[in-house]
Amino acid sequence: MVKNKTNAVLMFSLAIFVVLVGYLVIREAGQGGYALNRDDVIKFFSEKINEVSPEKPVLGGRWFVSRFRFVDKNNVYVEYEDGHVTRAFLLTLTKTSGSVPDYRIVGFFEPGALGYKLLAGEDATKGQPQEIYEYNETAKKWLKVN
Fold first, then answer.
1. d(Cα 104, Cα 93) in Å, to the nearest integer?
2. Is 58 or 87 the better-scoring residue by pLDDT?
């Protein structure tokens, strides 16, 4: 009798564990991806912009990031320039390994008469509210400006 009771308690505990883990996995999948640390995203793309940009800077210069516009936890516009040309791209961030995000460039832009003009890809987050970050020379760090 005691052995049957012990087995029943173990089976019940295992069932509860499986249900809990299943719930957590489904909940994470339903949240549309991974929430990445914005500081890590800013640091990575500020340092790697010359490797990430789909276009080379003009006159042998170097790109530098001027602004990040976070739409949500997985989409960010990165605005950058080389002193002559300004560009932007929209990234979809999927996950991170340590502090390095996995990303996909989904839209590529140049300045237009009324904001940025889409050159390639798509702008699925157009018109959505954004949190804007710019580098503050006095504070020597990226700060949210809106």
1. 7
2. 87
Q: Which tens digit of pLDDT belongs to each residue from 82-138?
A: 999 999 999 999 876 666 788 999 999 999 988 899 999 999 999 999 999 999 999
pTM attached to this predicted model: 0.73
Which residues in 1-22 are b (16+ Cβ under 10 Å) and which e?
eeeeeeeeeeeeeeeeeeeeee
Write the single-letter amino acid at 81: E
Residues 6+ apart with CB under 8 A from 119: 108, 109, 110
The answer to whether the CB of 66 falls within 8 A of the CB of 54 is: no
Residues of 69-107 as b/e, b for ≥16 C-beta within 10 angstroms?
bbbeebbbbbbbbbeebebbbbbbbeebeeeebebeebb
Q: How far is CA 140 from CA 28, 46, 134, 136, 137, in A?
A: 35, 13, 11, 6, 5
Q: Where are the domains of the chain?
A: 1-30, 38-144
Confidence of residue 80 (pLDDT cuts 50, 70, 90): very high
